[in-house]
Specification:
With 474 residues, this protein is an alpha+beta fold. 51% of the residues lie in helices and 10% in strands.
């Protein structure tokens, strides 16, 4: 069974898209590593990159070409100072020289050596092919697929590097919601405790805590940065950042000089129902504005839906529980990661395969379930909350204007967060015995809906708002 860690579902990377930016970036890194293992890296004289399907159709707007180049340069999306990306790409364009893997220089033309091919490869909508001309006259070609959430595989899944890492034996192997409930029942544990048992089979508790803290710090920094940055998002749509002004109006005149003091200011803000909605929306917008400007975010489970989980967790910390600590953060992220993995195993988290229901819908389900456990819900109520959240995202299309992760993507994160909170409250007020639709049924329905959905509504910018609203209108 495919065993997916929480840290597979919550990856730190650079925006604007996990499937179109982080995935191709990681694919380039993986290709370089495989060339080294085959003793071919030092023989490479020239390279070309072919982007297929959705990676081609929306690649420019998603900065896929930039991501590929950053991967070929050997930079790490988790650590690179994001403000350096423009200058590094600019230097490459000016000189026509690529520091391949950060080790050796080869010629590379940004405009002609990355080819956008509109056709779809049969295995997955997001195909990327690397071709290397070697000094001995040979040509080495490798094809990868970015399948959503930063996951990269080859068509031969059994021999894919990433899948080798995740096909492990968990003490509680889980593919479905029913299996998760089985372990909760037989072990008399909450969902977070069952997930923690699985994680401990991969790494120590100290390592788990350190990584979860790093994930949360990245989320928090992203929200903080988004709330304190003005201006217009890049890409040509001239979308004005809204989180800054919304944040200024909400926080009032209370001073602060650090992120921690900022949290205290938010907690002290007089809160009414309307303000709660605005705060949650502000947090979600802030994350995805950072994401849209090639900032660092946490895929949760994707970059396009990165704002839902941090905004709902912030809601819990500053509205529901002012005494919340790391243990609450840990519980939330463990539950969210497990729910996301159930959707990935049973359906998809790729908008290119399933539309936006696979991104915002899944992230809303993850956040709803995680919030429900923190609010005292039973494992059955946790899964009910996740089901409710997804049920009301079924059929949601992915139709980004101009191929940019901006309209309608940014606002959808605020909507997904509000739905998650509402789903949690509905689940907490419902006896699980009265539930009509189990989580596994909605996962299956989501996948069937994804397969029935017209391709033009699955991250191609060939349908919906992407053609209904012209760039000139913006």
């Amino acid at each position: 069974m495919e065993c997916i860690s929480v840290f597979d579902m919550l990856k730190i990377g650079v925006g604007p898209s996990s499937s179109h930016t982080l995935g191709p970036w990681r694919a380039a890194e993986q290709w370089i590593q495989e060339l080294k293992e085959q003793a071919c890296f030092d023989l490479v004289n020239q390279i070309k990159v072919m982007l297929y399907g959705s990676l081609s159709l929306t690649g420019k707007g998603h900065a896929t070409d930039i991501a590929v180049v950053m991967g070929l340069l050997g930079s790490d999306p988790e650590t690179i100072p994001t403000e350096q990306i423009d200058s590094m790409v600019g230097h490459l364009k000016k000189t026509g020289q690529l520091n391949f893997g950060g080790e050796r220089t080869i010629p590379f033309n940004f405009d002609t050596d990355i080819l956008f091919k509109r056709e779809f490869l049969p295995f997955h909508a997001n195909g990327i092919q690397f071709e290397a001309q070697l000094a001995n006259g040979q040509t080495k070609t490798e094809t990868y697929y970015s399948i959503g959430g930063g996951f990269v595989v080859k068509e031969d899944l059994a021999h894919s590097k990433e899948n080798k890492a995740v096909f492990k034996s968990f003490p509680c192997p889980i593919k479905t919601g029913d299996e998760l409930l089985h372990y909760c029942s037989t072990k008399s544990k909450n969902i977070s405790e069952v997930v923690m048992e699985n994680e401990l089979s991969l790494r120590s508790e100290t390592e788990i805590d350190k990584e979860l803290q790093r994930v949360w710090d990245t989320m928090l920094e992203c929200m903080y940065l988004g709330c304190h940055t003005q201006g217009t998002l890049p890409g040509g749509l001239n979308v004005k950042r809204r989180a800054y002004e919304m944040h200024q109006k909400l926080k009032g005149e209370l001073p602060y000089s650090s992120r921690q003091e900022w949290l205290e200011v938010i907690r002290k803000t007089r809160v009414r129902f309307r303000q709660i909605l605005k705060w949650v929306s502000c947090f979600a917008l802030s994350v995805n504005e950072v994401n849209a400007s090639l900032g660092r975010v946490v895929t949760a489970p994707t970059n396009g839906s990165a704002g839902v989980i941090p905004s709902v967790l912030m809601y819990y910390m500053v509205i529901e529980n002012h005494k919340a600590n790391f243990e609450h953060i840990k519980t939330f992220l463990l539950v969210a990661g497990e729910i996301g993995s159930i959707f990935k195993k049973g359906a998809t988290i790729s908008a290119a395969m399933g539309g936006c229901q696979a991104e915002i819908g899944v992230s809303s389900a993850m956040a709803a379930g995680a919030l429900t456990e923190l609010l005292g819900g039973s494992p059955e109520q946790v899964l009910m909350a996740a089901e409710i959240a997804m049920e009301h995202h079924l059929g949601l299309t992915c139709d980004p204007i101009g191929g940019l992760v901006q309209v309608p993507c940014i606002e959808r994160n605020s909507m997904g967060a509000i739905k998650a909170i509402n789903a949690a409250e509905l689940a907490l007020d419902t006896d699980p015995k009265d539930a009509k639709v189990p989580l596994d049924k909605v996962v299956k329905t989501m996948w069937e809906t994804a397969k029935d959905m017209n391709t033009k509504y699955k991250e191609t910018s060939e349908g919906g708002l992407a053609v209904g609203v012209f760039l000139s209108d913006c």
